[in-house]
Amino acid sequence: MTNPQWTEVDEYFTDTIAPADDALTAALADSTAAGLPEIAVAPNQGKLLQLLARMQGARNILEIGTLGGYSTIWLARALPADGRLVTLEYDPAHADVARANIARAGLDKIVEVRTGAALDSLPQLEAEGAGPFDLVFIDADKVNNPHYVTWALKLSRPGTVIIVDNVVRNGRIATPHPDDPAITGTRDMFDLVAREPRLDATAFQTVGTKGYDGLLLARVTD
Ligand code: SAM
């Protein structure tokens, strides 16, 4: 679902208070040129992620689902010079584009793009003692959303912020759709969050250049 007015308003917001710079613009252009799908967060959503990371005082960020590194760049810019961001990407071609985009943005010293299925990389991160992460952004294959939230919790501390993208599924999230694994996975994730006493959460719908969508935002309780 799209609406020209949503796009016009998003462009107004972005142009006035959340402009993308050359490195971000080039990251999107090179992602498109390399044939990656145009499913990165919108600029004002990238800025939201960056502000949340800054408000959180994040020093250690985990991202699940890199694509061309666009949201990665927004998030990594919230980190101090000695901060760290690990981003997990299944597709080696996406990871290569992301690494180049991240290097051009001057963030390759603090960002690691790890290639492979996230459900293989997450236990490795645990074994390496990579956590706890201060913020986890989940934006990969939606069928695995319950597993990703479970891993985010394992790699968290009290106060960790967990964000899950694309939870609206064009409004179909509100009823079961057994034929759609992305909806089933996302609904199972909502059930998990509802049952989990260590998570305090909300979710909200958004409209904009990316159409009709929404985010889940959770905090690990003290
Ligand atoms: N966060 C990115 C942004 O806003 O710029 C967009 C990420 S895109 C929506 C989802 C990415 O997750 C794709 O690049 C896809 O290849 C990756 N992905 C899909 N399944 C995955 C898996 N099992 N493990 C890791 N990454 C996966």
Automatic annotation (TrEMBL):
Any one GO BP annotation for this protein: methylation
Keyword Nucleotidyltransferase attributed: no
Entry annotated with the keyword Plastid: no
Catalytic EC class: transferase
Gene3D superfamilies: Vaccinia Virus protein VP39
Alphabetized InterPro entries for the sequence: Cation-dep_OMT (IPR050362), SAM-dependent_MTases_sf (IPR029063), SAM_O-MeTrfase (IPR002935)
Matches recorded under CDD domains: AdoMet_MTases
Enzyme Commission numbers on file: 2.1.1.-
An example Gene Ontology molecular-function term: methyltransferase activity
Record keywords: Methyltransferase, S-adenosyl-L-methionine, Transferase
PROSITE patterns, per database record: SAM_OMT_I
Superkingdom in the source lineage: Bacteria
PANTHER family named among the record's database cross-references: CAFFEOYL-COA O-METHYLTRANSFERASE 3-RELATED, O-METHYLTRANSFERASE-RELATED
Stated name of the protein: O-methyltransferase
